[in-house]
Design a protein that fits this description.
By secondary structure, the protein is mainly α. It has helices spanning 23-33, 37-59, 62-79, 89-110, 119-126, 137-156, 159-170, 175-182, 186-204.
């Protein structure tokens, strides 16, 4: 992935304050804003797996996740000078991923694209269960069936609800971090998560048509 900075990179790195960022991240960001290509490569290498994984969880499509990842890093480098340490750098990047994924989702909806994530694709992208070699065939089959049902249930959630589930249950973010990533209040995060969990519970118990 190219880390070449565009001409609209913002200046004045020295004006950045770092209340929510550790010294290492602050130094890395300042070097990136100063167009240090080594620092830009370091930032991409540190966060690219996380960016792709989150995009894939939100969109369920390998090609779309790759496209969004590219868009995310372009956006990161264009807007990095506006980063003021109001959160951890990772959380700030999460916010960009969510926004780009939401834009892609809207693009899908305008074209009435169905959202289906096959278990085979999930395994291809995320890998098999680590203990597969030791798991009896009947348990392996059951685990695949459960994973498929969870994937399908997640796919049917509204995008905003699916996002809070992924950020909370997969990425392990705190409520405050999720709220920042989504640009909403903590109470909104909690209510979306409650509705999403209830819907998933009903789906998995076969209580919904």
């Amino acid at each position: 992935m190219s880390t070449e900075l565009t001409g609209d990179a913002v200046k004045n790195a020295g004006a950045i304050s770092w209340a929510g960022t550790d010294a290492g991240e602050a130094a890395l960001v300042e070097r990136c804003v100063a167009r240090d290509q080594g620092a830009c490569s370091e930032l991409v290498n540190t966060h690219q797996r996380m960016v792709y994984a989150l995009a894939f969880h939100l969109l369920g499509d390998r090609d779309d996740a790759l496209d969004v990842s590219q868009e995310v890093f372009l956006r990161v480098f264009r807007t990095l000078p506006s980063f003021r340490g109001q959160s951890a750098l990772r959380t700030w990047i999460f916010r960009i991923v969510v926004n780009q994924a939401r834009n892609r989702q809207r693009w899908w909806n305008r074209r009435h694209r169905t959202q289906q994530v096959s278990l085979d694709l999930h395994v291809e992208q995320c890998g098999e269960l680590e203990s597969r070699g030791e798991m009896p065939p009947d348990r392996l089959l059951a685990s695949k069936e459960v994973a498929a049902r969870i994937d399908q249930a997640l796919d049917r959630l509204p995008f905003d609800q699916r996002t809070v589930v992924v950020l909370r249950e997969v990425e392990g973010l705190r409520y405050e971090e999720i709220a920042f990533s989504l640009g909403v209040a903590v109470g909104t995060v909690k209510s979306r998560l409650t509705r999403a969990r209830q819907t998933l519970r009903e789906e998995l118990l076969g209580l919904r048509a």
